Amino acid sequence: MKIRSQICGVLAAGCAVGVVVPQRAAAVISDEQFNQLVNKVDRDDQRIDQLEKTHQQDVQIHVQDQQKIHELEQKLGETHTIATGAAQKAEAASQMQPVASIAAGPSAKHNFMMVGDAEVQFAKPEGQHSGFQLADFAPIFLYRGGDDVLFEAGFDFMLANNAPGSAGYTTTVNLSFATLDYLWNDYVTVVGGNMILPLGTYNERGAGWLNKIPDSPMARGILQGNGVGMQLRGAVPIGDSGQMFTYAVYGVNGPGSTQTNTIALQNTIDLTSGNVSYPNMHANPSGGGRLGWFYAWKPHTDLELGLSGQSGEWDNNGQLLWSAAVLDAALHITPYFEARGEYIHTWQETADLGTAHPRGWWVQAGYKLAGLNLDLPYLSNLELLGRFDTLNDGLGTKTERVTAGFVYYFSNTLLFEGDYEFVHSRGGPAAATPGLLLQLSYGF
Amino acid sequence: MNGFSSAKTRPRAGRNLMAILVVAAVYAASLAVGRGEDAPPAKASKPAAKKKLTGAELYAINCNRCHPERYATEWNSSQWKSLMLHMRVRANLPAKQAKEIIKYLQEDAGN
User: Fold this and answer.
1) C-alpha to C-alpha distance for A385 and A340, rounded to whole angstroms
2) Which of A121, A206, A209, B27 is least surrounded by Cβ atoms within 10 Å, i.e. has the fewest?
3) Are residues A300 and B64, on separate chains, in Cβ contact within 8 Å?
4) Do A123 and B3 lie within an 8 Å CB cutoff?
């Protein structure tokens, strides 16, 4: 009994221990090892999730690739169809009669265009009636033949109100210039025809809308303005800074006169070389030229100096010379300030009075109020101008003129100019009249 | 050009105005010099002697000497070519500079 009861007791105790003690206690695994296993299982789960996602992305890419392949196959089919159609059309076209086609080539080498200017002027001379003095239309026709040839002709259609006391008005049409220009090379241009002469720079750069003051300096009147002849001109740059030397040399029908040599005023000489009243009766053409130097510190700040001259016979017998020399200068400081001027001296040999020296000079300065940054748009469109010019006719009369004026810029090409001129003379009648001048100018 | 023919003389008024104009011109020049550094840089203001000038710079240097600058869109490319021939002759522009300027203008030329 005792043994049986002991066995039963052991079994009962064993069962009790088996129930109470946890199962893990039965294995030989520590808590740390158990936690490591748990962590490992978690990491494996995460890796599996990532792999599944990657797989899904691969599947999507594969589907997209399949779609692209399908589209490419469709396009290939269309291309094949088009190519087949084109081949059929080409075959059909080859059986047709050839026709002239319009080829798309380079742009035309020739070009014709018109530029120029137009003005209308109002004047109120002191002691005289006021009125609209003139209306002027001055087109310039340009015909370019290729890269090196240009024909240019400037006309001047002018309706001028006749002087007070006279009736009506006078309409004139003048050929201001007409030249054929050939760019021989980078340094030489050949000019032939009725040329604006490079005596100074005023004439060549003095279209109506460029002058800023409506009338010209008095001394310009003692120079020959244009003439028929030939000219070589060009420029030689100095380095890459914009500095340059310029030159012009020409032969031209100079001033002439049908008068006898006993009368020798500049008014008897045809300085325009185009007035039929004074044809060129001299024996030989005149020669002349200009040398210039230009230096730019920066855009809109520069200096230009020039020296020009001309000499030739003016009388019928070819014995008397008319010569001229012009010193010109122009200065720009910033886009707002400009000053320029010329000194002009002429020598006119006469048979009875020796050599006369008609001469004069002028200087003009302007300042654009835009330089003041006033934030006043209308005032900023103004340029204030002043000019002094003088003329000694070489025969005892000297005229001085002071001009104060302005330019209002409606745009870069539409200008309203106004000035008042004060005139003083000694020794004879003045060469100019004081008064008010207003002008509307348009450059096109 | 006009009917001015009388010989009215005003010596004092003219000379006084001349003196005023001279003073005004000198003052304007000094203003311009003073503003030269403060003024907004021109479209193409670069040191002139240190590098080759661009077409824009050459355009600003040469064209504004005689007339207000024109817009590139005012003419088409072929017309600009004719105009540059005209200005190269009239203003005695060096060939290389004229070519740079025409390239600049043709970039934005009108149709």
Assistant:
1) 12
2) B27
3) yes
4) yes
pLDDT at A263: 42
If one compares B15 and A362, the residue with the highest pLDDT of the two is A362
Contact B5 A163 (CB under 8 A): yes
Q: What are phi and psi for residue A234, nearest 5 degrees? A: 175, -170
Mean pLDDT for the stretch of residues A192-208:
92
Beta bridge partners of A409: A415
pLDDT at residue A87 tops 90? no
CB nearest to B21's CB, from A143, A386, A425: A386
Beta bridge mates, A405: A385, A419
Q: With an 8 Å Cβ cutoff, is A262 touching chain B?
A: no
For residue A115, which residues of chain B lie inside 8 Å, CB to CB?
83, 86
Chain B interface includes A172 (CB < 8 A): no
> What is the distance in angstroms between the Cα of A120 and the nearest Cα belonging to chain B?
11
Query: How far apart (Å, rounded) are the C-alpha atoms in residues A143 and A151?
Result: 5
Out of A185, A387, A434, whose CB is closest to B10? A434
Residue ranges covered by each domain of chain A: 111-130+140-148+176-443
| Amino acid of residue B56 | A
pLDDT in tens, chain B (111 residues): 333 333 334 445 555 655 665 666 566 555 555 554 444 444 444 444 567 899 999 999 999 889 988 999 999 999 999 999 999 999 999 999 999 999 999 998 888
Is residue A298 classed exposed, middle or buried when 0-12, 13-18 and 19+ CB atoms within 10 A define those classes? buried
Query: Which is more confident, B52 or A93?
Result: B52
- Residues pairing with A228 in the sheet: A194
Looking at CATH, the fold of the domain delimited by A111-130+140-148+176-443 is given as: Porin (2.40.160)
Total-model pTM: 0.72
Task: Provide the number of CB pairs (under 8 Å) joining chain A to chain B.
Answer: 243
Taking every pair of Cα atoms in chain B, the longest distance, rounded to a whole number of angstroms, is: 57
Tell me the two tokens of residue A306: 């020039």
Cα separation, A199 vs A222, in Å, equals 11
| A381 contacts chain B (CB < 8 A) | no
Q: What is the helix (H) or strand (E) element at residue A115, kind and residue range?
A: strand A110-125
